[in-house]
């Protein structure tokens, strides 16, 4: 795909067929959204991981629809080319098709998302079908699904044993049959991700799922070194937290030492005549 071409679902599908890897990152605000777009990232996801990475919650469970819409709007203003996907927060789609359509519709109508993502396997197939029928493109998410952390018993690797691996394959097939256009595969063995990717016509986007998915997604704060967690599958390309801290300390030191602001470089002056008048009242 050309660098300035708008990314669409059919174009992403064509990338899978052509074997061209798809890139995806999370963004939660306008500046990072612009940078992702400029870097040529194909899918920008406003993940519910905004909960931990920006809002200071301990898990993704507390983040609300209003908070997700607020961040999605900001990202929308920064993204021109990439496909923008909004992540449906916990319990915003779990009760009924009506609830899911109403909330997914808000991502599209009020925040400018082009698709939504929701967590869950075969149990969510009916919901995905209802959303698709309503004209809403859906990205599924299976494997480690952080909204179900209590049921899963933690954030460990999923699908290592045969029954669970079979279940994940069945989940993937059910979501494809329901009309999802893509699936996030999180923290599953690479062999299982490869098998699912081969079996599906729709896109697989891996995170901690090895190199054989159709695309990769990372949490931008992990990649940039802004999150505190050290995660095996999240390669850190930069230690931004350290750079920011150094800059803040330097700023503080310079103000304390009266080295910032400087008169010539950082200050504004006025005519002496005006100063004289003010001084003489
Ligand atoms: O919320 C998020 O950041 C996600 C990614 C891990 C895919 O769901």
Number of DSSP strands?
8
- List bound small molecules: 3-methyl-2-oxobutanoic acid
Total helices: the number is 13
Global geometry: elongated
Order of helices and strands: HEHEHHEHEHEHHEHEEHHHH
| Strand arrangement, major sheet | 1-2-3-4-5-6-7-8
Number of domains: 2
Oligomer: single chain
CATH topology of the largest domain: TIM Barrel
Q: Could you give the topology of this structure?
A:
Layout: H1 9-18, E1 22-26, H2 30-38, E2 43-46, H3 50-53, H4 65-78, E3 83-87, H5 97-111, E4 115-117, H6 125-133, E5 138-143, H7 149-152, H8 162-178, E6 182-186, H9 190-199, E7 203-207, E8 215-218, H10 220-224, H11 240-256, H12 263-266, H13 272-279
Parallel strand pairs: 1-2, 1-8, 2-3, 3-4, 4-5, 5-6, 6-7, 7-8
Bound molecules: 3-methyl-2-oxobutanoic acid.
Residues 26, 45, 47-49, 87, 141, 184, 186, 207, 217, 219 line the site of 3-methyl-2-oxobutanoic acid.
């Amino acid at each position: 795909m050309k660098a300035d071409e708008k990314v669409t679902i059919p174009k992403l599908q064509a990338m899978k067929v052509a074997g061209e890897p798809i890139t995806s990152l999370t963004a939660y605000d306008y500046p990072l959204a612009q940078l992702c777009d400029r870097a040529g990232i194909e899918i920008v996801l406003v993940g519910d991981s905004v909960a931990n990475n920006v809002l200071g919650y301990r898990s993704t469970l507390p983040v609300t629809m209003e908070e997700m819409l607020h961040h999605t709007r900001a990202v929308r203003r920064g993204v021109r080319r990439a496909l923008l996907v909004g992540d449906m927060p916990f319990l915003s789609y779990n009760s009924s098709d009506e609830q899911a359509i109403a909330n997914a519709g808000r991502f599209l109508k009020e925040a400018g998302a082009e698709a939504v993502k929701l967590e869950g396997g075969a149990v969510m197939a009916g919901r995905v079908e209802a959303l698709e029928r309503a004209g809403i493109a859906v990205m599924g998410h299976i494997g480690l699904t952080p909204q179900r952390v209590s049921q899963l018993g933690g954030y460990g690797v999923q699908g290592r044993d045969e029954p669970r691996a079979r279940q994940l394959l069945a989940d993937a097939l059910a979501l494809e049959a329901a009309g999802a256009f893509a699936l996030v595969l999180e923290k599953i063995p690479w062999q299982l991700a490869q098998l699912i990717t081969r079996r599906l016509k729709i896109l697989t986007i891996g995170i901690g799922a090895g190199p054989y998915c159709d695309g990769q997604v990372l949490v931008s704060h992990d990649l940039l070194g802004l999150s505190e967690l050290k995660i095996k599958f999240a390669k850190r390309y930069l230690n931004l937290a350290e750079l920011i801290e150094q800059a803040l300390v330097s700023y503080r030191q310079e103000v304390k030492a009266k080295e910032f602001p400087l008169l010539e470089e950082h200050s504004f002056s006025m005519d002496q005549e005006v100063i004289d008048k003010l001084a003489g009242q």
